[in-house]
């Protein structure tokens, strides 16, 4: 979830792109896939929130699952929803992971708007099925959103230089309610890197991963198995 600060009224308001209704439809549709006994990866963000809430309601009606959270936010939501949690280190595989995305083109994604992509990627990669839930504004013919890159604090300047040499425009992500950069839950910083139109997501993904100091990045290449897109008339589901 993103927040915008209004200095006149000294308030923070949640800013989300896309319709709340479409997010709800997509998140709830993804949650329907979960079955009794599943270990479920719980994504982060304003769309994953609806899936987590829906799973909580299903648990009230008897569904027996355990969740693995991808962030502080998803842990908190899961606890509120009554979803029993396992630590990531307690599992060696996951049945289904459900998460949102900042942009979707085919089965490739840009994620990390909430700076949780490192853990989100670990959870998605461990899952037999990775289900992505998005509103219709997230769908694109090509990935062209800035790619969030989690970087060791001490490596930020050398990684910045490497990204610039690759033709990217890196921008250190700043906090809203604290002076200085965003610190991830792993204690690192985020460089939002604009590469324009990403012609080859696999190539760019490998190039970024190869830079020493990079922890992980928000390009999820060919990881999604199913995409649930909320739109005005319901939910469109894309399968591989
Ligand atoms: C967090 C993420 C989110 O899934 C992504 O930013 C989409 O969020 P939202 O559903 O709020 O638009 O990658 O790191």
Write a concise keyword list for the protein shown above.
15 strands, 6 helices, 30% strand, Alpha-Beta Plaits, 2 domains, Rossmann fold, single chain, 240 residues, binds ribulose-5-phosphate, six-stranded mixed sheet, globular, alpha/beta, four-stranded antiparallel sheet
Question: What this model shows, in words?
Answer:
- With 240 residues, the protein is of the alpha/beta class.
- The chain folds into 2 domains: 151 residues, Rossmann fold; 70 residues, Alpha-Beta Plaits (2-Layer Sandwich).
- The protein is built from 6 helices and 15 strands.
- A hairpin with a 2-residue loop joins strand 14 and strand 15.
- The radius of gyration is 17 Å and the shape is globular.
- The structure holds ribulose-5-phosphate.
- The site of ribulose-5-phosphate (5RP) has 20 residues, from helix 4.
What is the strand and helix layout of this fold?
Layout: E1 2-6, E2 11-15, H1 20-31, E3 39-42, H2 48-60, E4 66-69, H3 72-81, E5 94-99, E6 103-105, E7 108-110, H4 117-126, E8 127-135, E9 147-151, H5 156-165, E10 169-172, E11 189-194, H6 201-209, E12 214-217, E13 219-220, E14 226-231, E15 234-239
Parallel strand pairs: 3-4, 3-5, 5-8, 8-14
Antiparallel strand pairs: 1-2, 6-7, 7-13, 9-11, 9-12, 10-11, 14-15
Residues 1, 16, 43-48, 99-102, 111-117, 120 line the site of ribulose-5-phosphate.
